[in-house]
Amino acid sequence: MEEKKVAVFCSASYTIDPLFNEAAREFVTKAASEGFTIVSGGTIKGTMGVISDALEQCGGKHIGILPRFMTGLEHKGLSQTIWVDTMSVRKEMMREGTCAVVALPGGVGTLDEMIETHTLKKLAQYHGEIFVLNLGGFYDPLAGLLDYYVKTEMLDKASRDMVRFASSVEELMEMLVKLK
User: Fold this and answer.
1) Could you tell me if 130 and 100 are in contact, meaning their C-beta atoms sit under 8 angstroms apart?
2) Which of 29, 66, 73, 123 sees the fewest Cβ atoms within 10 Å?
3) pLDDT confidence of residue 3
4) How, if at all, do strands 80-84 and 98-103 pair?
5) What's 74's DSSP letter?
6) Single pTM value for the model
């Protein structure tokens, strides 16, 4: 059976709402139990660390991709650690061979990763699905912006629909398991 990998983009902040980290923990644990390998930034920081801890505890397969300047921040429980030279290469490697990317609540780095992936999918350079966990309406402004782009004809509806928003971990998992 072919390995199914999912890239997870998320926060490196320690000061975010604890509900976001709890949802991240729940998501990766459930995804791992469904046989998905998680690909992430692989550090000990913020939500990335929460994901790493959760996957280590549940025995899930976890690939961390880190730029060399982050040496010392890698999580020791990763199944595999891949070192790269730049953040750009990191993003590319995180997507490689994945059936989907999932953007959890995060900052500008998470937004950058998700938007770049959307652009690549629109250009037929990424073939996986794009899911966004819109927990508590966190990504409502982004969804509104994409809708506004459609309204002003800066983006066509089919391209807008490439980004699928889930309001709960349960809804996100329902979308993800359909890829198996």
Assistant:
1) yes
2) 123
3) 81
4) unpaired
5) B
6) 0.95
